[in-house]
Amino acid sequence: MTKPSLTKTGMIDFRGVNKWFGALNVLKDITLSVEPREVVVVCGPSGSGKSTLIRCINGLETIKNGDLVVDGQRLGDPATNMTRLRTEIGFVFQSFNLYPHKTALENVTLAPIHVRKIPRAEAEHAGRELLAKVGLADKVDAYPAQLSGGQQQRVAIARCLGMRPKVMLFDEPTSALDPEMISEVLDVMVAVAEEGMTMMVVTHEMGFARKVAQRVVFMDAGAIVESGTPDEFFSHPRTDRSRAFLSKILRH
Amino acid sequence: MIWQQFLGLAGSYPLALRGLGMTVVLSLISLVLGTALGFGLGILRTGGNRLVGSVIGAWVDLIRGTPFLVQIFLIFFILPEFGIELDAFTAGIIALTNLAACFICEIVAAGIRSVPSGQVEAALASGLSRWQRMRQVVLPQAMRIVLPPLVGQYVLLIKDSSVVSAIGLTDLTRVGWLVVQRVPNGLLVFFLVGVGYFIVCYPLIMLARRLERRMGAAHGEVQL
After folding, report:
1. For residue range A232-249, what is the model confidence (pLDDT) as tens digits?
2. Does any CB of chain B come closer than 8 Å to the CB of residue A107?
3. DSSP secondary structure string, A69-82?
4. Contacts of A98 in chain B (CB under 8 A)
5. What's the Cα-to-Cα distance from B142 to each of A87, A102, B137, rounded to whole Å?
6. Closest CA relative to residue B96, chosen from B22, B199, B195
7. What pLDDT score was predicted for residue A2?
8. Binning pLDDT at 50, 70 and 90, where does residue A7 land?
9. Least CB–CB distance from A93: residue in B122, B136, B224
10. Distance, in angstroms, between B139 CA and closest chain A CA?
């Protein structure tokens, strides 16, 4: 077993990572490094393992072998406090997963108050500012059921930002949204990226990738097939599989 | 004839009140204890430790699969064989609490399992501890599923408390047995005993129905 050197690591480091669901090899020998302040877009056909890839980073999925080091801490290492590491990693879900019994503000302040132990008044002040930042100053006391999908996802992003994470992971954040709500969520994500957040984003939104991503990673059948700048990848895909994929998402 | 029997019954009024009091006290204590224990067991049952979960599951099945009368006899007559002396009241409380806990454990576990896994993932991802996830995210959402059947279960348990009369506790049912020896009209006496139970249970039945309606309405509101 090789311990990764902690001298030269990115914010997120996959080295030879494999994962199986039963007999299915869902992640095949993944090696990928994400630097601080970098924005990486992950795309690929459904079932290619891209969601699994980012779910491994905060331990929602466990890896079988290889090394995965996040913020200098090796996952699966007994010395790594997973609960503490997760406070540094924001995760935005495809289906928002807001707490339905809590208001927008309570959704944002729950973890800061109970995990970060920030005084309630201070956390609520910060929460209101974050909700204003994502354009929902007037929805502070609304329950998730009273919000549109786009609004819910913006609350979910504010909920992550409330923890002041070092990394934010987005798992198809706009896939469950009606088309007219996609841009309001992407605008917020662009703003977060421009503030220097380290981000890994599973999405097919090419406009977003071109605007803020330094790198696009294309996955197919559990493996990273291609990786390059958005311009290289979208304009000059190098493999048949990425060309086939792009022709499908570009058709409409 | 009937009138004389009524007068005889009127004389038993203090005894009946005592019996009703015993039924209420017995039910109240064991429901409070059983609810606390049942929530604890339900949380442990779904907590992810397979061994703990299956031990609790086996115990719950055992209790649900045997008559309550037999359980009371076991506690009251068998435990002294092992040197544990219990008065009838304590034995009754233990038996009823255990019964309540087992039924409530199942209700709570079902409620917890009904909370979508995405909720737990969201709580996990924001760094909440196991207890914080349960307390802040899972239990409040499970309660809407748990409450209506929980109150319904209370009604069943209050009625089950009548079984403790078998070990000599003077509850409402035993008062019926005592009175009917003096006033030989079983129909009338046990009709009144039934009325006594109904008076205690009916408010709970109404509460369960209201909760069910409210939870149903609230649930519809969440589905956009």
Report:
1. 999 999 999 999 999 888
2. no
3. EETTEETT-TT--H
4. 122
5. 25, 14, 9
6. B22
7. 46
8. very low
9. B122
10. 11
Residue A21: other Cβ atoms inside 10 A: 12
Inter-chain residue contact B136 with A110, CB threshold 8 Å: yes
Q: What is the dihedral of CA A188, A192, A195, A196, to 10 degrees?
A: -150
Distance CA B28, CA A99 (A): 34
Distance of CA A73 to the CA centre of its chain: 18
Q: Count the neighbouring beta carbons within 10 Å of the beta carbon of residue A176.
A: 14
Kindly state the tokens that stand for B223.
Answer: 């589905």
Q: Which of residues 117-176 of A touch B (CB under 8 A)?
A: 145, 159-160, 163
pLDDT band at B181 (very low <50, low <70, confident <90, very high): confident
The pLDDT mean for chain A works out to 92
Q: What is the DSSP string of B63-85?
A: HHTS-HHHHHHIIIIIGGGGT--
| pTM, full prediction | 0.86
Task: Evaluate if residue B139 carries a pLDDT over 80.
Answer: yes
Chain B residue numbers with beta carbons less than 8 Å from the beta carbon of A83 are: 127-129
- Chains A, B: CB pairs < 8 Å: 61
User: For residue range A69-94, what is the model confidence (pLDDT) as tens digits?
Assistant: 999 999 988 889 999 999 999 999 99
Report the pLDDT value the prediction gives residue B197, as an integer from 0 to 100: 93
Instruction: Identify the three-state secondary structure at position A58.
Output: coil
Average pLDDT, chain B: 89
Distance CA A185, CA A155 (A): 10
Structure tokens at A53: 């890839």
Helix B186-222 / helix B139-160 crossing angle, nearest 10 deg = 170
Amino acid at A20: W
Residue A43 to residues A205, A228, B112, B125, Cα–Cα distance (Å) = 9, 12, 35, 22
